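Margin note: ligand = cobalamin.
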Amino acid sequence: MSEEVRAYGNSVVEEPSGRTVIVSSMASDSHTWNLVYLELLVRELGFDVVNLGACVPDELLESECVSRRPAMLVLSSVNGHGYQDGLRVVQRLRAIPELRRLPIVIGGKLGTGGPLSDEQTAELLFAGFDGVFDEQNAAAFRHFAATLPGGVSQLEGA
Ligand code: B12
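Resulting structure:
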């Protein structure tokens, strides 16, 4: 086994590989092609991807992040509830000590009235997101991901 393991509670978790990114929807959202798109995009950036799929319960997101210790968590929502779901989920994740420094971003169609307001975006960032990407802002997301350890820019520089 190449990765170090250590005890955590009643289970055994792997130390972060630095190359795995979790892509996920949140509990209310059943759309899936957005996740397929993100999985391909993140792979193109040089990462391995674990795609948790649609309608992911908060508890499953928490346990997957704690056990896999990914390089980043990418949340996607397009059903219009992303702002509310995102606020709830990121506060829960940030309350877990192991996940306080995990890069967490969200994107998609996050509100019901078009793009989020600057105030709503600021609230999501204040609640714990490292990036909030409107659906038209894939370039900014690519830039963010490429600066993470394990991303393509790091590999090219090696
Ligand atoms: C197919 C579809 C469905 C299917 C989904 C089937 C499936 N297996 O995915 C079904 C019928 C189940 C469905 C249901 C609903 N849907 Co629907 N659906 C669509 C539709 C027509 C296409 C979505 C799609 O697959 N797009 C293709 C993918 C690749 O594109 P995308 O999802 O837009 O994602 C892009 C960007 O948003 C961005 N992106 C997404 N996530 C992220 C994350 C990051 C980090 C970044 C950088 C970018 C990013 O990148 C992607 C590529 O550009 C859209 C309308 C449309 N034309 O977009 C409505 C749409 C998303 N649905 C909508 C709604 C309202 C619903 C329902 C609430 C309808 C209802 N009353 O029941 C339910 C919600 C169900 C639920 N619990 O979530 C609305 C959402 C409105 C909003 N956000 O304000 C839309 C926009 C339709 C509309 N114009 O009103 N839907």
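The radius of gyration is 15 Å.
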